[in-house]
């Protein structure tokens, strides 16, 4: 059974080798592969003979056959000591034959591998030969081209020398012609130069005249601008004079009454200088007009030149104002606004309780004595109806910049009012929904504050003013 399996394995190997090398040679080397089939067959026959030693020939059944077979077995047992060494020798010969077959098969595999290596080397050599042939072809082509270049260079040199000779003659002739022409043109150039100088002189004169005209035009434009500035200044002075004329309120003696405690100043000029123009203040009123939309019977305490009243009138909000300055009241009336000269405490005390729909008070509370500020807030709470709005604007003491700028400019200021204190007074007087909005960042008028850290700047140099809003509960 082992011999049959070995034979089948050898045949399978042979079939694979033949399938890989159908021509009976290794690759393209024309090396024949040894055929091991005869050795395998001889080995199989020898193993069959070895396996048959000690067996008896089969015969047909019967008594005589049984007797013959017993006699043969006895004879075979009797001769076993005589043929044992021959059997072992035969088996050794078969094993040697098997080893030879395996060695030759291994040699075949090694030869195949060596042949494959030779094939790879041969292919590499062929590719190198092909590359070398291509390089040789390129070198030959370049050599032919170089030969052509040398031939062309020799021909071109002869032609070039002939052309150089012709060009040299031509250049000498041209130089002679140019020298004659130069002498002729030199004479003409002198005349042309004098004519050009005369033309440049005329052009320079015309340019000077044009520059003179431009300077005159610029002078008159600058003069006109200065004239307009003087006109604007004169117009402003005349406007202030007219405002003072509107503010004249005759008394029994025909002259204006001046309270003994009033500081003698030109307050209209003071407002223009430090508070800003009418248009600037009027533009800032939109913050409050949006808050007072839908309210009626709004009282502007300290109405000044009437900017809030103008904005309220334009927005359809019914509003009236009071002020201690006769000039301001006269100016408001000249604009067609409802304004009266009155003390705020007296005026509020005269109003019926819950009769006002809103109170606007801008830049006033800092003028009041500290002991009278709670009284003002209490009176406002009494006179405002439920749901009415109060808006108070005042300098922001949280911003240290106001003490270096505008707070002490007004000599009638008493002391700044912190927003927390004003909110406390409002709560005590029946107000709620209190909001504080900070206005006019100090950095807009003092750019040097930008060098401070942002958190420090916001805490101590934030807004110059603040507005506090509250609703009557």
Number of helices: 14
Walk across the major sheet and give the strand order: 5-4-3-6-7-9-8
The helicity comes to 55-70%
Runs in which pLDDT lies below 50 for 5 or more consecutive residues are: 246-261
Structure report:
Helices cover 63% and strands 12% of the residues. By secondary structure, it is α/β, with parallel strands linked by helices. It has a seven-stranded mixed β-sheet, with helices on both faces. A two-stranded antiparallel ribbon has the order 1-2. A hairpin with a 4-residue loop joins strand 1 and strand 2. Helix 2 (37-52) crosses helix 4 (80-246) and helix 6 (278-284) crosses helix 8. It starts with a helix and ends with a strand. Residues 246-261 have low confidence and may be disordered.
The gist of it:
It contains 14 helices and nine strands. With 473 residues, it is α/β, with parallel strands linked by helices.
Topology at a glance:
Layout: H1 2-20, E1 25-26, E2 31-32, H2 37-52, H3 63-78, H4 80-246, H5 267-274, H6 278-284, H7 286-292, E3 298-301, H8 307-314, E4 319-323, H9 326-334, E5 339-341, H10 344-350, E6 356-362, H11 373-383, E7 384-395, H12 419-428, E8 431-441, H13 442-445, H14 454-460, E9 463-472
Helix pairs in contact: 1-2, 2-4, 4-9, 6-8, 10-11
